[in-house]
Write a structure and sequence with these properties.
mainly alpha, two-stranded antiparallel sheet, elongated
Length: about 130
């Protein structure tokens, strides 16, 4: 793991510690307690509605944070022994990062189309001006 990945892992760990309300509560006795977890998709949308999560920028228009980094970060908060919660947070973070990256790519596409449109307009204007002269 390189330095950038370590920094991102530490940012995820710090986020999950600060926002413990976004971490499923661990139950010591599965056989004594019925619980319902969100689906990974529901959890991802919950994360995407969180400003602090968005600031992590796990997904950018260039790509997403490596899954290994996410799983190592979650492992520091939720032991893999708690499989449903562990999987939920990893899958939810991964889906949220992918959705965030898709949003970024859509914005980048719109900007690129705008730049191309302006460039074509200026080129056409220059051509018309040159022909008129």
């Amino acid at each position: 793991m390189n330095n950038i990945q370590e920094i991102k892992r530490d940012e995820i760990v710090a986020f999950l510690r600060r926002r413990s309300d976004l971490v499923p509560q661990l139950n010591q006795h599965y056989w004594l307690h019925q619980f319902t977890l969100l689906t990974p998709e529901q959890y991802a949308h919950l994360l995407l509605n969180d400003t602090e999560f968005r600031a992590l920028q796990l997904g950018t228009w260039l790509g997403t944070t490596d899954g290994e980094v996410i799983s190592q970060a979650v492992e520091q908060i939720i032991p893999p022994f708690y499989r449903p919660e562990y999987d939920l947070v990893i899958n939810g973070l991964t889906i949220a990062a992918n959705l965030q990256a898709q949003e970024g790519q859509q914005v980048a596409e719109k900007v690129a189309l705008g730049v191309i449109g302006v460039g074509l307009f200026i080129t056409g204007l220059a051509y018309v001006t040159r022909e008129a002269a």
